[in-house]
Amino acid sequence: MPELPEVEALVGYLDGRMRGLTVARVQLASYAALKTVDPSLDSLVGEPVRGVSRHGKFIDIAIGDAHLVVHLARAGWLRWSDAVSSAVIKPGRSPIALRVVLSDGSGFDLTEAGSKKSLSISVVRAPRDLPGVARLGPNPLDPAFTRADFGRALAGRRTQIKGLLRDQSVFAGIGNAYSDEILHAAHLSPFAIAATLPEATVDELFAALRSTLERAIAEASGRPPAELKDAKRARLAVHGRTGEACPVCGDTVREVRFADSSLQYCPTCQTGGKVLADRVLSRLLK
């Protein structure tokens, strides 16, 4: 799933290529992916692209007086082309959910792999008309978001820190991969309870959050969409690296599996050498 750094890179790439051009054609191939009916997709045709921005993991393309808002979810992606194919997309016959063609012939396809479809495409008059955008918490990289704000977000929450970092109503844009990376950088167990963290640990976690995301954005910036997935995998220290050596201490990266997801961590760096139980109700092994 693309998270804040990849979505930020996609937004920068799209804004540099789409701004000022006009939408020449839109073709919907997955009717289930379209979550709104008014304004219509067809109303975007002939309208200029005013800019591209981000709200958490949502991509917001301002077109005329409307906004084309996309959430790529777990298996969605965006494929850019400087010369989009003129072939008609047959619904159900390809992974393409939506094609947008611009006035210079360039454009993109939104695609989704797998059988579990959760890609979301919406056309709205204002991004906050979407419940998913309206409920978003602060951007953790916003200069106005301070260490004090971060501390208040954690205070009183009897919640495991891994889940809290992923909660979009608390911190917009952080997902499964970067929460693993942030906790590894902060030397913190994913099962630590947010409300019980000492102030010094909160300091370290806030610094790790900022540095991890800023570094990832810097490394992703300017890359075309086709390179972003591989570039992300290459820079991850623990996420998706079960059984490999931790790049910091050399211990084996471990995994905790849940019903529909998993997390990765380093016992030496994060849990004092203790191995977390790999079951749905995970806890430290006695």
Helix content estimate = 25-40%
Task: Give the neighbour order of strands across the main sheet.
Answer: 1-6-7-5
Distance between the termini: 34 Å
CATH fold title of the largest domain: N-terminal domain of MutM-like DNA repair proteins
Contiguous helical run count: 8
**Largest sheet composition:** 4 strands, antiparallel
Question: How would you state the average pLDDT, rounded?
Answer: 95
In total, how many beta strands?
A: 10
Mind telling me the C-alpha Rg?
20 Å
Question: Descriptors for this entry?
Answer:
4-stranded antiparallel sheet, alpha+beta, 286 residues, N-terminal domain of MutM-like DNA repair proteins, Helicase, Ruva Protein, domain 3, disordered C terminus
Structure description:
- The strands form three sheets. Strands 1-6-7-5 form a four-stranded antiparallel sheet, with no helix packed on it.
- The C terminus is likely disordered.
- A hairpin with a 4-residue loop joins strand 6 and strand 7.
- The longest helix is centred in the C-terminal third of the chain and has 22 residues.
- The protein has 286 residues and is of the alpha+beta class.
- Helix 5 crosses helix 6.
- It has eight helices and ten strands.
- The chain has two domains: 131 residues, Alpha-Beta Barrel (N-terminal domain of MutM-like DNA repair proteins); 124 residues, Helicase, Ruva Protein, domain 3, CATH 1.10.8.
- It is elongated.
